[in-house]
Design a protein that fits this description.
single chain, 254 residues, alpha+beta, Glutaredoxin, Glutathione S-transferase Yfyf (Class Pi), Chain A, domain 2, 2 domains, four-stranded mixed β-sheet, 11 helices, binds glutathione
């Protein structure tokens, strides 16, 4: 599907979250120009009809582009967006491997592992630990333990890796997909010090200029600073989040 078109038709709809920054970090690593629309969760823009035309699931990230036949293509689910971008634009295999190679399938395994495991489980750890109106120990323990288990899976893989990346000898979309989640470890209440290879990997990725630049789209990335905040500041951050407002609406629906 590789082609030589000017890629400036790419339009990313995003917000400052672990799923959103996957796509901007990838676009920056590939050196692709793109337009950005910052979607406001507090205004519920992700549920507006015009946005649902792009992503019927009403979540970020989403991306549009002009397809090879000249029509518009609309993509949602960060993993699917990343696969589209490397299939179409990473012709030199900077952050991907050729389709059909063993590493190509290894990258897919880790990408699906992130999409089906790390993201959803750590997201629930955040929810029960930081946002839930009631502190439910069962929910907190279940999702924090599952996040720790998933971190230990990455830790073992990285301990075996000669390159320090998840697959093969270079940074790939598998690493990029996981980075924003691991970088937000403190918000989930998990200690990164238990996972030395994972911590080293997290720092190593920051040395890539595209990761460093893309993590600050659409606004400054702050997850790594949260370990320095007091409990009071962390509680305030959770209390002011749009997630709290949405959770109370959910309670009313019951
Ligand atoms: N599996 C989806 C998850 C997308 C997702 O949950 N996005 C969150 C931000 S990280 C969102 O848009 N939340 C807004 C909402 O739930 O209304 C992906 O990876 O793209």
């Amino acid at each position: 599907m590789a082609d030589n078109k000017d890629p400036s038709d790419i339009h990313l709809y995003t917000a400052a979250t672990p799923n959103g920054i996957k796509v901007s970090m990838l676009l920056e690593e590939l050196g692709l120009p793109y337009k950005v629309t910052d979607i406001s969760f507090s205004k519920n823009e992700q549920k507006e009809p015009w946005f649902l035309e792009i992503n019927p699931n009403g979540r970020i990230p989403a991306l549009t582009d002009v397809f090879t036949d000249g029509s518009q293509i609309r993509l949602f689910e960060s993993g699917a967006i990343m696969q589209y971008l490397v299939d179409r634009y990473d012709t030199e295999h900077k952050v991907s491997y050729p389709r059909g190679s063993k590493e190509y399938y290894d990258v897919n395994s880790w990408l699906f592992w992130q999409m089906g495991g790390l993201g959803p489980m750590q997201g629930q750890a955040n929810h029960f630990f930081r946002y839930a109106p009631e502190k439910i120990p069962y929910g907190i323990n279940r999702y924090q333990n599952e996040t720790r288990r998933l971190y230990s899976v990455m830790e073992s893989q990285l301990a075996k890796s000669k390159s320090g990346y998840l697959v093969g000898d270079k940074l790939t979309i598998a690493d990029i997909a996981c980075w924003g989640w691991v970088a937000a470890y403190h918000w989930a209440g998990v200690d990164i010090k238990e996972f030395p290879h994972l911590e080293a990997w997290m720092e190593k990725l920051l040395q890539h200029p595209g990761i460093e630049k893309g993590r600050h789209v659409p606004e400054r990335h702050t997850s790594l600073d949260w370990k320095n905040l007091s409990q009071e500041e962390l509680d305030k951050r959770a209390a002011n989040s749009w997630v709290r407002t949405e959770s109370s609406k959910d309670q009313e629906k019951k």
